[in-house]
Amino acid sequence: MSFSPFVIKALVDTITGGTPNDETPPVGIYRSGRKIELLFLDCGLDMSLGAGSRVPSTIDFLRQVAQDYDADEKLTRLLVRVADPRDYLAAPEKGQAVIDHLNGVLEADGFAITIVDGKPQLISRQLAVLSVSTCAERRSHRPARSSGATIARFLRPSRTPVLCLR
Fold it and tell me: Is 161 left (phi over 0), alpha (psi -120 to 50) or beta?
């Protein structure tokens, strides 16, 4: 697994909430420098802004993380953390905008973020397709019943359904 530079840029957009001088609408919520540091700590990453500005410091730190031997694991923790809907209880539409923004860049890398039981998960698009076809095959060979597995449906920005068994 390897994430593209577009994923790093999307993480910066969603972690910081953008810059005050930027004319494009922010993705997600604005986070102060201290809240950005705490978000990284939630992921087991010790990031300090020091005297730097929020956005440039976040860019620099994420570029360093992307060079680590365990970069995929660290970036996955950040992707899942920033997409957590519990951060957006006051404005759920912003949480959905974060997921849509991240999925827009993750799709080309073969991944998607989906919410299962109220928690974000990073899944492989190949596994999602496999789950859909396997689920469809199983459902076509057995009668419908109310006590079977619950199927949760999630839509990515491309409107392609991703089904997850719960």
Answer: beta
Q: What letter represents residue 114's amino acid?
A: T
Query: Which helix (H) or strand (E) is 17 found in, with range?
Result: none
Instruction: Using alpha carbons, list the distances in angstroms from residue 75 to 63, 66, 71, 84, 93.
Output: 10, 7, 6, 14, 24
State which amino acid sits at residue 129: V
Torsion of the alpha carbons at 55, 56, 57 and 59, rounded to the nearest 10: 90
How do residues 142-164 score in pLDDT, each as one tens digit? 444 433 333 344 444 444 444 44
Angstrom distance (rounded) from CA 90 to CA 71: 31
- pLDDT tens string 85-143: 999 999 999 999 999 999 999 999 999 999 999 999 999 977 555 544 444 454 454 44
The model's pTM is 0.75
Residues in the chain: 166
H/E stretch holding 71 reads helix 71-82
